[in-house]
Amino acid sequence: MDCVFCKIINGEIPSEKVYEDDTCIIIKDIEPIAPVHYLMIPKKHYAYIKEATVSDAMELSFMLNKLSQIADEIGLEKGFRLIINQGDDAGQTVKHLHVHILGGKKLSWEA
Ligand code: AMP
Ligand code: ZN
Question: Is the CB of 56 under 6 A from ligand 1?
Fold first, then answer.
């Protein structure tokens, strides 16, 4: 499958990985928009949050719980923001579900 995140997960494309387990990886975004900008990516490929099955959604909640546990270790001790882009209006460019994790400064709030 021609998917950049599947290729990162398979090791075909290099990435700066800060966390990995059986279900997901967390990597540094190559075009950060905050001092800390990670992407949490499930190893299972599905394009959109709208495609997530109940079992995908359960896995996603475990991933978020894991993130809460390791946040302090990866530079997010003062807080973080999570974003999932869904579709064109949100500007989703990579069609493999991912959660943006932003932090490292007091973030402004704009749409
Ligand atoms: P989205 O607009 O939600 O689809 O976000 C996709 C994100 O993936 C963007 O912030 C890109 O900078 C990031 N990205 C694309 N290719 C790579 C890559 N090879 N390694 C790390 N981040 C990437
Ligand atoms: Zn993929």
Answer: no
